[in-house]
Amino acid sequence: MKRRIFLQRTAGAGLAAGAALMVGKPGELFASAPQSKPYDLVAVMGGTPEAMFDLGIQSLGGIGNFVTKGQKVVVKPNIGWDVTPEKGANTNPALVKRIVEHCIRAGANEVYVFDNTCDDWLKCYSSSGIEKAVKSAGGKMVPGNTESYYKEISIPEGKILKSAKVHELILDCEVIINVPVLKHHSSTKMSAALKNMMGAVWDRKYWHSNNLHQCIADYAMYSKKPVLNVIDCYNVMLKNGPRGVSVDDVVQMKAQILSADWVAADAAAAKMMNLNPEQIDYIPIAHKMGAGNMNLESLNINRIKM
Amino acid sequence: MQSSILKRIRVFLALVVFLFISSIFLDFRDLVPDKYYDSILFFQFIPSVLRFLDLSVMAASGFIIVIILTFITGRTYCSVLCPLGIYQDIVSRIGGRVRKKYRRFGFTRPFTIIRYGLLGITLVVTLSGGIYLISLLDPYSIFGRISTYFFKPAFLVLNNLLAGIVNKYDVYTIYKVQVKTITVLAYIIPSVFLFLVTVFSFRRGRLYCNTLCPVGTFLGLISKISLFRIKIEESSCSRCGRCALACKSSCIDFMNRSLDLSRCVSCFNCLSSCPDKAISFGLPLRKVAEKTVDSGKREFIAGTLLLLFGLSQTVRAKEVPVPKKASTVREEKTSPVCLPGATSIENFSSRCTACSLCVSACPKNVIQPSVLEYGLKGIMQPRMDYHKGFCNFECTICTEICPTGALMPLELEAKKLTQLGKAIFIKDNCIVHTEKTDCGACSEHCPTKAVQMIPYEGNLVIPEVTNDICIGCGACEYACPTTPFKAIFVNGNVQHVAAKKPQTEKAVLKTDDFPF
């Protein structure tokens, strides 16, 4: 910024503030400005996935706080299974669509969506409704089906998982938005933000055979982290996860959790499922390693009911 | 020299057929809808016969039409409908271009003993209950195997090279695909046949079809008396021999102005080669040929047949029975896992010609050619290999496309309740037991939750299998990370059975306020 422009703008801002002071009480100046102490976590309940995201992201200062013009964005939902949206095994397509729309409105150059699926990837992309949703919002569905799309990275701070092969887009992009679905998980008890990144890496078997919980926490120490985690708690699978057997496994919670801190987001998500975050081993491990803060009491939380 | 109109029609139709049949084998993007597979493969002779024997329906009557067609126009099947024949014509054409000055063709004597011997043996062996010889020699199945195990991988490599380029420019309409190989031993048979047909056709045109192919030999018997045929007008023929050089079946004996109709594939290449316009395609000229019977030859053929029949029976007696004895290594499978829609291993192995169309069509790469899993006679017949992939719960494609009826169509809901085998848990191999850490990859992937995680030591959970709701899809076995032996595997059912539907109960949770 040139000095002249800086001076002009500062003067302008000073004038505006002065004018505001003259009109109203001094305190209102700060109240009307975006949240003085920003929220660590926003939880929304009672609306459609789209409406809850609109409110939630607004409360975090708008998508502009996370995505700026010309950036390459990766939106990483859970598209692991060849099942339809009401089964709650994949992220809600309406939510993914809305997030892509927000990113594009914020001026993102390109918005990419992918997952390393468990079932056949083409069937997953299509049955989940996510492919259609992303394309209609102007985003790009990217394959993650062969090892050649993955590149080796190192995680110096990891205890067991010291290196991994991540999707090349994770390396190429400027912004990652992690959009998991909250659900029961047979081995880790719960799957949400931290666990969702297993879909960004190639060799998951290594994680499974080398202390799964520690590996999940280790990955959270990788330097390229999501700037925002949006946990879809609209249709929540309470049992038989992560794939689910029938819609009977699902309750309609109609909620959403947004946070830049994925450990905090996962702790809140665990509570939504009536689980103690301490019992989901990877959450306390990630907390202790410094990947985030699981103590919800110490966080500034905005709870919105629609 | 302008080629005759008949030849041009033949070439055009053959290319269309070749394109369609190749496309279903190469189609890794599911661009050709499954419902067209039946029509595309309708005329394939052996699959159609097998299906007809099973179903006796008009939908499987392709081979009858082929026989009628052969009575009318000779071996048109070999020229226009057989993908292996068309492949050989393509190779032969290339051979002609490469070795321009070399006169490849010319009249040769037929390999009578070999061709009729092979036809006879194949018939006898097949009728006495073994499908293995006809599977090995059926030209469509040979083409299917060559396509699946050689052409498709090559095609995928090309696709991946292209995808690598366009993906750099942010275009993902072309994407990379994992090129997967099969067990080394399973390459032997398709390699041998690829070599045989390619070398034979490159050097000698239709030599393979007129020597080793039982379908060709069988249709040759009919084409001997076909209504329309290639004929040589003796009065105008100057014995220049150009037709003999043009004949890729080497069946024109220009010195005697005669033609071996049993080897003629009605390709019409000779029509335009004749400067005297003495060759034409039409109703036969009336001429009574003298025939001599070589009784020694006949006896020899009969003897050979008998000998080979005996041999084949001995092979059968020595076959590894299904289910085979429990082996002492690996996961102790007593029986291979047979594909959905097969109903039983016996039913499947008596109908499958190992054309490998299902191997090619399976999106999860779980269908793999067998080596000895079904015994020697089932070599190359596909099985479920859960080390390579697992059966996608929502998919029935293999059951819908089988041209021989070895796999019968299954409705999706029925397939989800068809138990191909049962999962068996080996606790001593399990990560949770050996490493004392959570894993649960098997249970994660299980679509019916026949594999569930139950409390183990401390906070740990360990798998438990409920057999009656297991459908044997192999998701657990595939996902299990232990090596070299899995901690959970599927043991095949000799006879597929109905699995129980998983019991479900509506989940409840009070969710009207934030719990934090």
Summarize this structure briefly.
Chain A has twelve helices and twelve strands.
Please describe what this structure looks like.
The complex is a heterodimer of chains A (306) and B (516). Chain A has 306 residues and is of the alpha/beta class. In chain A, strands 1, 2, 3, 4, 7, 8, 9, 10, 11 and 12 form a ten-stranded mixed beta sheet that branches. A two-stranded antiparallel ribbon of chain A has the order 5-6. About 10% of the residues of chain A have low confidence. Chain A is built from twelve helices and twelve strands. By secondary structure, chain B is mainly α. Chain B is 41% helix and 9% strand. Chain B contains 20 helices and ten strands. In chain B, the strands form five sheets. Chain B has a two-stranded antiparallel sheet with strand order 1-4. A two-stranded antiparallel ribbon of chain B has the order 2-3. A two-stranded antiparallel sheet of chain B has the order 5-6. The longest helix of chain B is centred in the N-terminal third of the chain and has 30 residues. Classes of the chains: A alpha/beta (306), B mainly alpha (516). At the A-B interface, α5, β4, α9, α10 and β11 of A face α19 of B.
Give the secondary structure arrangement, pairings included.
The complex is a heterodimer of chains A (306) and B (516).
Chain A lengths: L2 H21 L2 H7 L8 E5 L3 H11 L12 E6 L15 H13 L4 E4 L7 H7 L2 H8 L2 E2 L8 E5 L8 E5 H5 L2 E5 L1 E5 L3 E3 L1 H4 L7 H6 L2 H8 L8 E10 L12 E10 L2 H11 L9 H8 L11 E5 L1
Parallel strand pairs in A: 1-12, 2-3, 2-7, 3-4, 7-10, 8-10
Antiparallel strand pairs in A: 1-11, 5-6, 8-9, 10-11
Helix pairs in contact in A: 3-4, 4-6, 10-12
Chain B lengths: L4 H22 L10 H4 L4 H11 L6 H12 L2 H6 L1 H16 L13 H16 L4 H6 L1 H30 L19 H17 L9 H10 L5 E4 L9 H5 L5 E2 L4 E2 L19 E4 L12 H24 L26 H5 L7 H5 L5 E3 L12 E3 L12 H5 L10 H4 L2 E8 L5 H4 L6 H5 L5 E5 L5 E5 L9 H5 L8 E11 L18
Antiparallel strand pairs in B: 1-4, 2-3, 5-6, 7-10, 8-9
